[in-house]
Write a structure and sequence with these properties.
The chain has 65 residues and is an alpha+beta fold. It has one domain. The chain has 2 helices and 4 strands, in the order ββαββα. The protein has a two-stranded antiparallel ribbon. Strand 3 and strand 4 form a beta hairpin.
């Protein structure tokens, strides 16, 4: 089983062909920018301000920045 990762949605696993095609589309349309929360340089969608890691932390109730 292949595993994929990106800074928009985190880890992708056990994907069918359509999901893999979407993953590659997302990768092709990403831009490199600084996450507004952690300050790391990440490859995310132009309209996003924070990376998946930070979004997940917020959703889980962590306020560690």
């Amino acid at each position: 089983m292949e595993s994929y990762y990106d800074d928009n949605f985190g880890h992708w696993e056990d994907m069918d062909e359509d999901a893999i095609a979407y993953y590659h589309h997302v990768q092709d349309t990403n831009v490199e920018k600084k996450c507004n929360r952690c300050g790391q340089m990440v490859k995310i969608q132009p309209q996003y301000a924070i990376c998946d890691y930070c979004a997940t932390r917020i959703e889980q109730g962590f306020d560690d920045y």
